[in-house]
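Thread: quick sanity check before group meeting

JM: Hey all, I'm pulling together slides for Thursday and realized we never actually wrote out the predicted structure for the chain we discussed last week. Dropping the sequence here so it's in one place. If anyone has concerns about the input, flag it before I start.
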Amino acid sequence: MYGTNNVSNCSFYCHQATSEALESTIGTGTATIELDDLSKCDLFFLVGANPASNHPRLLHKLIELRRRGGHVVVINPIKESGLVRFAAPKMLSSMIKGGDEVASHYLQPRIGSDIALFTAIAKAVDELGGVNERFVQEHTNGFDQFVRSIRSEDAASLSRQCGVPEADVQAVAKLYNKSNNVIFAWGMGMTHHLHGVKNIESISNLALMRGMVGRRSAGLLPLRGHSNVQGIGTIGVKPVLPTEVFHRLQNELNVALPTEPGMHTLASLEAAYAGNIDVALMLGGNLLEASPNKAWSTQALDRVATKVYLTTTLNRGHIEGVDSGDVIILPVCARDEEPEPTTQESMFNYVRLSDGGIRRIASVRSESAILADIGKSLLKEIPFDFDEFRGHQKIREAISRVIPGMEDLADIDVAKREFHVRGRILHTPEFQTADKKANFVSVEAATADDAPGPTFMLMSIRSEGQFNSIIYEERDSYRGVDNRWTVLLNQQDALEIGVSEGSLVDLVSDHGRMGKVSVKIFSIARGCAATYYPEANVLTSRASDPRSHTPAFKSIPIAISKS
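JM (edit): ok, ran it. Output follows.
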C-alpha cells in the first residue's frame, strides 16, 4: 500500500499529460522544486488552477510571497474570487482583515488559447532582452529553432487569438524579466485539452528561457492534486514503464511480465464498448463520472460481463452502467482506517507515513488484503506468494528495491522519517535526459480547439462543496451559485444572445444536451462558458490529446440557446 485508494481519473489524466510534457523538456520522472523553494521565490505563475478551493495550503505561501513584496500572475479564463483575495484560515492576521490580495496580475485568456498567450509572453521576453544566454547555451538544446518560431509570430495576432491585451502581455514579460526566482505552477485547466501536453511544453519553454529550472527557489510545479495520483505515477502506473523498473519488478517478484502494449483508460472503455472486456476490476474512484461522453461511457461499462469494485464510498458509478452482467462491490478501508501504516506522496515529492487505525466498520478490509486473496485464488500456477503481500511493510520493501529513488521507503514505519524521492528535486541544471540538457520544444501557436458551428467554448469546473465527483452541497460559495445546473457567462456575451442573470438556456454539443440551465453572469473571457463537472460530461466527446490520451474536459464546443 503506497498511495491511497479512490484514484481520480481526472487528476490522473493531468498527471499523464504533465509527465509526457516534462519527459520531452527536462527528463523522465522529474519534478523541480521543494516546499522551501516557495519561501524564497519572488514571482509565481499560477496557470489553470484554483488552489483557493483545491490546494488552500498553497494560498498561504502565495500570501506570504505577496506580503514580502513578490508577485503572483494568475492565468485563468475565469476570475476566481479566492485568487483575487483570500482569507487564509491558519493566518490570524489574514482572517482579521478579511483576507489578503493574491493575484498581482490576472490574465483571462480564451479557453484553449493558452499556447498563443505563452508564445506572446515568450516573444516579449525575447524582445525585451530577458533570455539567459549563458544558461541556454550551456544547459539546453533546441533554442535556435524555438526562438525563430516565436520571432516569426505577430504580437497583435497572438493577442487577438488569446484575448489578452498586448499591454498586459508586455507588463507580465517585464515583470518576469526583472524577477530573480520564478516558479510556474499549473493544474488540470492546462492538461484537459486536445493540446494539453503542448500547453505544458510551452510553460517549460518560458521557464527555460530565463534559466528558471535546475536551481533553488525556482522551477516547475505541477498541481496534480491527490497524493495517490502522485504516488501511482512514482511506482510505475504510467504509459511506459521504464526498462530498469520492468526488469527489477520481474526479478523481485520472480515472474515474467507481459511485453505487449496495455490499454489506457479510454482504450479500455472502447474495448468494453466493443464487448471485448469480460471482467473489470476497478480500484476506487468513480470511472463512470470521471469519463467523457457519459451516455457512451455508461453503455461501455454496461457491456462488461463482470464488474468488481473496490471502494470506500458508494457512488453513481455503482448504480449506472450495471444493468447487464454481474456486479460485485467490495468495501475497503480508507487511508485513516487501514490496520497498518500506509504512506502517501505530496505534490512536492515528499513521502510521509499515515498511521491509520480508525475503526469505522469492523468488517471492512484493507485493499491489499482483498487483492492478495483474489490473486491467490486466480493465479495458482505462478511462483509468487500473495500471502506475503497482505502486509503493507512487505509491499513497501518491494517498492524500495524496485523503484529508483524510493530506497528510504523500506523502513519508514520504523525510522518515522519522512523523505523526498531521490533524484526528483532539481537544484542543479543537470537534467534527466540522454545528454543531461533540457530541451526547448517548438510549439505552434493555436487558438481554442477547432470545431465548426458552435459559438462558445465550455469548460467543466468543480464547486467549493465538491470532492472529485462527490457533491457534498449544491451551493458553490466562492462563485455565489446556489444551483449546480448553472452556466457562467460573460455579460457581453449574454447580452448578445439575449439572456440575463437567471435566464434558462440549453447547452448543446455534438454529443449531448443540458436543458434549462440557469445563467450566472460572471467574469469570464469572451466566447467562453463554464458549468459543473460531472454533470457537463453529457456534453463531452471522446476526443483526446493524442500524446497523453487526456480527454478535452476543459474545451467543449457548444451552442447556447434560450430554453
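AS: nice. Residues 1-8, 447-453 have pLDDT under 50 and may be disordered. Residues 9-25 form the longest helix (17 residues).
JM: adding both to the slides.
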